[in-house]
Amino acid sequence: MIKSILVGVAIVFSLQANAQLKNEHTEGWLANATSTINQQLIKASQTYLPGQNPRSVTCGTVRLANYKDWTTGFFPGTLWYGYELTGNKALAADAKRFTLGLDSMRYITDTHDLGFMIYCSYGNAYRITKDKSYLPVLSDGIKNLAARFNPKIGVIRSWDFGEWKYPVIIDNMMNLEYLFWGSSEFDKSAYAQIGTTHALTTMKNHFRPDFSSYHVVDYDPSTGKVFRKATHQGLTDSSAWSRGQAWGLYGYAMCYENTKDLRFLTQAEHIAKFLMNHPKTPADKIPVWDYDVHNALQADERAPRDASAAAVIACGLLKLSTKVKNGQQYFKYAEDILKSLSSDKYLAKPGENNYFILKHSVGAFLYNSEIDTPLDYADYYYLEALNQYKKLKKT
Questions:
Q1: Count of beta carbons in the 10 Å neighbourhood of residue 359
Q2: Dist CA 178 CA 78 (whole Å)
């Protein structure tokens, strides 16, 4: 009898020990990533100057982004997320310094990227600090973004360059969060209406039957009809450019979060299914730069991975995981992505990688630009996902 009791106690202790080891392992990868992030951001803040933010690395040389660059808001935003993740108040001070260095963004009118540029920097600054001194830039920027909306077509114009008639890219879905936030903050219902209309028009015209997305839809501004569907960064017009698919997933999960319109939730789930069940997804769940690239490459050629796409996908899935009954499947897939990105293969060692956090992203493969390099927006969305993940683990 005593022997049976002792055996039972031993089994219980063994199970508890295994559970503890499992928890320590889970916390281990996150703790290591958090420590690395803290060290990298401290060094980056000491190395780079406000108004000239680190964007990527080419042949060992850091490409810097000034206030007009579409990526310039990501580094300050990463510092804000780094402060949230680590609790290091020095990072908050650095985040403020780098955010204020971009004040002139408030006057930019020739791009849709104002969400990336202003909301990721000033938006996070205000969200975290509630300091109203950030609001004038946010107010000016959102007016300029809303002014790019064409009610006849029902979308916000993306670019003012090239031979396009009225181009709209899937990336533009990400800028709608700025509008939804501003609608409430500035009591301007028109901003939310623009965001909703743009999302619905994009849902109608950007997606194929399998819920993969075209990169660019070019509209005829005189009629509002689709002129052509194409790509600017994907392998072909009909391919599934990886980061573009990620923008769509995040965008529609975010739209549902802000509007509670079930059409957006359904769209997000369809995109998630396309991504999670794609036969070309590598085992570590970090996609190559275009999901269709394997169809065009020889067997002995290796397509570069895109950690930035993976980070955005993780963010989108974590958002989605809290909105549906079967959300655990999305949470688990996002967790697997984050563990991969936090491994030695993708996560830089402290002091290396020119103080960027992640390795192995792709900017624009077709133009031989930023291939297999760190990217500021990969770091930004990786930290956003880690913060989401950490909060969800506590609930």
A1: 22
A2: 17
Total number of residues shown for the chain: 395
Is residue 191 a contact partner of residue 146, using CB atoms and an 8 Å limit? yes
Percentage of the chain lying above the pLDDT 90 cut: 89
Q: How many helices (H) and strands (E) does the chain have?
A: 13, 9
Residue 262 tokens read as: 């079930």
List active site positions: 113, 171
Q: Which helix (H) or strand (E) holds 156?
A: strand 155-156
The whole-angstrom distance between residue 128's C-alpha and the CA centroid of its chain comes to: 19
As given in the structure block, the two tokens for residue 256 are: 């549902």
CA distance between the termini of the chain: 41
Query: Which whole number is the average pLDDT over 334-345?
Result: 98
Helices 262-276 + 307-321 axis angle, to 10: 130
Q: Stretch 336-342: mean pLDDT, rounded?
A: 98
Task: Please report, as a single letter, which amino acid is at residue 234.
Answer: G
What does the DSSP 8-state code read for residue 263?
A: H
Read off the pTM: 0.92
**Residue 58, class by beta-carbon neighbours within 10 Å (0-12 exposed, 13-18 middle, 19+ buried)?**
middle
For strand 155-156 and strand 149-150, is the pairing parallel, antiparallel, or unpaired?
antiparallel
